[in-house]
Task: structure prediction
Amino acid sequence: MNSKTAVDNFISKKNLAIVGVSRSGKKFGNTVNKSLKEKGYTTFIVNPNSDSIDGQTSYPDFKSIPRKIEGVLICVPPAQTELVVKDAHETGINNVWMQLGAQSEKAIKYCEGNNINYVANECILMFAEPVTGAHKFHRWVWKIFGKLPK
Result:
């Protein structure tokens, strides 16, 4: 289960890498990237298949990013998530958010075994302020039913 401390720790970081932003622009990673930039985050796209996505530089790996990355948001299938988590950790990134649907038990165990702050199976747009629209309503519903991280 995710803790409120883990969520707050991650969303307090302002320089984030995002894995799962697609060249087609039709994946959830693209939506998250745009939304987080609008909320004041500095985002860095990690996609080895493109140099640029929607006019934003895309990097082939974490090591290629020219700034210190404080966290990585993962929006890829679970089979890829464990590799992304290991690569992030080896690069010195110790804050990981496995977007709803990206989490895997192996990645979670790796985080736990390597003292990595992680959030799994949650939507970052329910927590990164300001929360608006459907995400605000969804967070309110989860609060009523006691499903928010404590």
Notes: The chain is about 35% helix and 20% strand. The radius of gyration is 14 Å.
